[in-house]
Design a protein that fits this description.
Blueprint: H1 2-29, H2 34-45, H3 52-65, E1 72-74, H4 76-86, E2 89-92, E3 95-100, E4 103-109, H5 114-118, E5 125-129, E6 132-133, H6 139-146, E7 153-159, E8 167-172, E9 174-177, E10 181-185, E11 190-195, H7 202-217, E12 223-227, H8 236-245, E13 251-256, E14 264-267, E15 279-283, H9 290-300, E16 304-308, E17 316-322, E18 329-338, E19 354-355, H10 363-373, H11 381-385, H12 388-399
Parallel strand pairs: 11-12, 12-15, 15-16, 16-19
Antiparallel strand pairs: 1-18, 2-9, 3-4, 4-5, 5-6, 5-7, 7-8, 10-11, 13-14, 13-18, 17-18
Length: about 400
């Protein structure tokens, strides 16, 4: 690029730049890295004025994307969103998405969200947002498109298995309170506990739901089924604390990294909220991160049987590092975590004790399950009839 500029402006431009370089040589030499030096020269000599904040964001995002999919630069808006999510609230559509090759795929629609109400499903492929194609776009770009309109209206074009034509959904961003935990007392005095995500309230929510089921039962629970399917994870501390609820001894998880503080081992404290009652944990390929910590801890400590399919394999810890401007931060992968058996989850996931594939459901059956989850039908047994993994988990719990 510099050669082309010199050719256009001939000797005059070269001379001007040479003088400028001599004036700023001390400043340029003081830069900490070639990257800072390049940004310095772009900011001062590029033919048009550059939005430095936008340039920095793009450069930093591109740089961090070379490390792994989870390290990223967070500006003030993105940092606030992260804090909102970890505190159980944010304004949005309520979809969890991930990149699969060049496609953006919906992993799940959060309960009580605009996405769930509209009928979006896990496995739907996002084609366009507000008529802007999202093929090859980053998750950051997808987020910006969803939040681009002031009025909160969003149109999603979706490709769905079994449909030859694309499906269009018109949604409006809304404040969403993330219900991280749901529960139901079963007829045989066993409990069903669904953990949708791990946020700062999840530990207390789990304890509260178990206490509620015990009070409904009138005595201690005979067993507990913990459903972690399609749980994308969340905060590290909540996963450790929730696993500790069910463990009296043993390692919960250990972390290993390059700096001293990244190497830690987290050990269970005495006390088991279920007093030894049997546990079965459900996982699938959508169970990731914090969900894998809990499943791995209960499995390796022989506290639970794990049923379903191999989990996602997101076994790294991200630390939030505030930056000097006081408004942005670096979310950086600083460690990998290992199950009590010393197995790294990164890229491999948790292998279930009992492998059960979930058959693809017909669209009509999926809609029935969505309606059930939204409270539109009282026939909760129908969910079990369509859920072979759940059936197997319940059988194992009864056989304990």
């Amino acid at each position: 690029m510099f050669a082309h500029i010199a050719l256009i402006f001939r000797h005059f431009s070269i001379w001007c730049i040479a003088i400028a370089l001599s004036i700023f040589s001390a400043s340029a030499a003081a830069q900490e890295s070639p990257l800072e030096e390049v940004l310095f020269h772009i900011n001062h000599f590029y033919v048009e004025e550059v939005d430095r904040a936008k340039l920095d964001h793009h450069v930093l995002s591109s740089l961090l994307s070379e490390l792994d999919p989870y390290s990223e630069y967070l500006d003030e808006r993105e940092l606030k969103r992260l804090f909102d999510v970890t505190n159980g609230e944010y304004k949005g559509l309520g979809i969890e998405v991930e990149k699969r090759q060049d496609h953006v795929v919906i992993v799940s629609a959060l309960p009580n969200s605009p996405a769930q109400a509209a009928g979006l499903l896990g496995g739907d492929i996002l084609l366009a947002i507000n008529d802007v194609a999202v093929l090859d776009k980053s998750l950051e770009d997808v987020s910006k498109l969803i939040n681009s309109r002031e009025n909160g209206e969003v149109t999603l074009a979706i490709a769905r298995a079994g449909h030859s034509q694309r499906l269009d959904f018109h949604l409006t961003r809304q404040p969403i309170h993330i219900e991280s935990v749901n529960s139901e007392l079963q007829a045989n005095r066993t409990g069903y506990l669904r953990i949708n995500s791990f946020n700062n309230h999840s530990y207390h929510d789990v304890a509260r739901h178990i206490t509620k089921m015990q009070q409904q039962s009138g005595t201690a629970l005979k067993g507990l089924l913990i459903d972690l399917r399609d749980n994308p994870g969340g905060t590290f501390d909540s996963a450790i604390n929730i696993a500790d609820l069910f463990l009296s001894t043993g390692t919960i998880v250990s972390t290993r990294g390059r700096f001293i503080e990244a190497n830690q081992r987290f050990v269970a404290q005495p006390g088991d909220i279920l007093e030894g009652a049997p546990i079965v944990v459900l996982i699938n390929q959508g169970s990731a991160s914090a969900a894998e910590i809990v499943a791995g801890a209960l499995k390796d400590n022989h506290r639970a049987k794990v049923v379903g399919t191999r989990s996602y394999g997101k076994g790294s810890v991200q630390s939030l590092i505030p930056l000097g401007d006081g408004r942005s931060a670096l979310k950086l992968t600083t460690a990998k975590y290992y199950t009590p058996a010393g197995i790294s989850i990164e890229g491999t996931g948790i292998t279930p004790d009992v492998a059960i594939l979930q058959p693809d459901l017909s669209q009509s059956n999926k809609e029935v399950i969505i309606n059930l989850a939204a409270g539109k039908s009282a026939n909760s047994n129908l969910t079990a009839l369509l859920d072979t993994q759940l059936i197997k988990a319940q059988q194992l719990l009864e056989e304990y």
